[in-house]
């Protein structure tokens, strides 16, 4: 036991339909005031529902930059949180404070604008293209405030805002940062409204969680928490709100939109969070529930809560979504702010919307649990949980505590090995639009994937599923009841399922919000690919998708190694995936990039495994992951120049974590793709870091700029080179990758 | 059976639900193990039929959704209502 790496909350920021500050939002939520009104920013003609919880402020009032609304909402909340934390450049090393943002719909408002302009006026604004990917958000926030620690966008739909907090704590505990501005952000969008409308998942009136449970009401906003190491907070004399204890992330492996009816996946995340906090279920005073208000969620969540907490005679549960609406990728972070306030103020915000008859019905469903209907509950709140459950069957749970509490140290210092690789990369350029993968029925048959399953998949999910299954097969891993909870997934992507998103959006523009595609909508979330992969493979552990430019495919390996070192899983599949379709090609062409590089696509999955797990099952090891590093130097999203320092740091820190000097590196698997600016930066930094001439391997010569897939392939290529190096040419190979906006990941692979 | 209607329905299923055309017969069980449609897909079918023929299938009995043949029959019987 021990909590040498205590994480504390030192700042809060919030913007949602309840107001543009933590105080305004908390006063409203604690007093049961709703932010749900008639929708104003999306055309709801012919829709059966028209309620939403929108933020009153126009985008230009949030911040002055020309960014997508998701970024602007996030900057607004982050500004409040950093000021609240007393952030100044004097008391922080900017390299040690990073940004991790949860998000669901990316730049959906900008995607809507771009294609509306194109379809209705015939002239879309090219500058909107860089606002489309979720990758931009954390970078934009980091740029605005000059934060240069590691960045990530966690894009696991409605659980993203909680997962980002969980990841921030893990990185602080492993000493990789002093603090993070962490949370989530999402704007109101025609995409989400049309999609949930198509699924008949919107409530006609205001949503009514744990009550009428007849659908959700969408909201928008951002919540940011400054999470800081206790030592750092004390050293600078910071005000401390509360402690962040353990968290848990799990997969349902059940259905792409619906939660498991038996609540097993939800309970797995909650159990992990309580266990990682060193607590018992009876310790918990308050649970901010996921509580969306859909019948399926509420039934599963009632079951989960009763199963785990019926022995607790003092737990209160509420859903603040009854007032904020469902803010998707921001939901978990907004609710985390409310949970922190509940702990600090000893006040539980209510779930609103119950009439007399509803209150009678609730008694039966609530049993011994206090569901705090309509009015707040003032009571001691020492330990509180916030839950978030998402499309794709992704679940996350996190625990906040008023006072310090010893948490179990599950971390392990075991060596991590590569034990399997699955590749699917573009090889042919028949259409003259870059390299594309040729996927046939045989690719599915090889892994027993039936048409009933694969016909659901969009391009992005197809690529991911095939490479993921190939990697598991290569590692000779069979997922079964004995190991299903010990295997996790991290997927990195630059652009996510952009083709499906654009297809859905164009249909909505042409045929109206009321006519969205129920079939397509589940695939428009970035984590659908990871969801399908977990469902088909039966993987029930950690499951996160990171959108963070090209380098996300290598960042996934850094992240996966971190999860293994945290002791949470023993096997991780780390992937990089990006698609090249007519849609993506056109966007890259308009930005002028296709003149300098050949666009590619694909997915590369790498199985990482702890030494104990690999030994136990007699796995063949390809190489060791000896060191990793993620760095950032804020430059404008879409550019790289000026971020050289972060690349240098990434290489030096990765070598340091591998316990070697840079000159012990035998070769580099680099990120050159033919773009002169990018290639010049790469060359310049190598000549600065290495005192000798170092061989540089460029995988993109063969596979094109397959973005995150190419970044993952850099590591996969290095692993195979080390495995097959009969001449003894290589001891250590460095893979380093860059992402626009100034994010870098570096991995040192070691021969065994 | 009106094959013109059946072909349109087939085209809609191939386009909107990504069912490979060569694996889809008029009598294929849409909700069986092979094609494996589910409740989300049935929402899409309802929207597609409405779009193509102006026929409302919301609330229609389950058996009408079994095959392209049964869908065609339903459309034939309810067109112009």
Structure overview:
The complex is a heterodimer of chains A (752) and B (81). Chain A has 25 helices and 25 strands. Chain A has 752 residues and is of the alpha/beta class. Chain A has 2 domains: 9-401, Peroxisomal Thiolase, Chain A, domain 1; 416-494 and 548-750, 3-Layer(aba) Sandwich (Peroxisomal Thiolase, Chain A, domain 1), CATH 3.40.47. In chain A, the strands form 3 sheets. Chain A has a 20-stranded mixed sheet, with helices on both faces. In chain A, strands 2-3-7 form a 3-stranded mixed sheet, with no helix packed on it. In chain A, strands 12-13 form a two-stranded antiparallel ribbon. In chain A, helix 3 packs across helix 5 (136-145) and helix 7 (190-198) crosses helix 17. Chain A is globular, with a radius of gyration of 24 Å. The two termini of chain A are 33 Å apart. Chain B is built from 3 helices and no strands. In chain B, 51% of the residues lie in helices and 0% in strands. Chain B has helices at 3-17, 39-53, 68-78. The longest helix of chain B is centred in the N-terminal third of the chain and has 15 residues, at 3-17. Chain B is mainly alpha-helical and 81 residues long. Chain B has one domain (3-19, 28-78): ACP-like (Non-ribosomal Peptide Synthetase Peptidyl Carrier Protein, Chain A), CATH 1.10.1200. Chain B is globular. At the A-B interface, helix 15 of A face helix 2 of B.
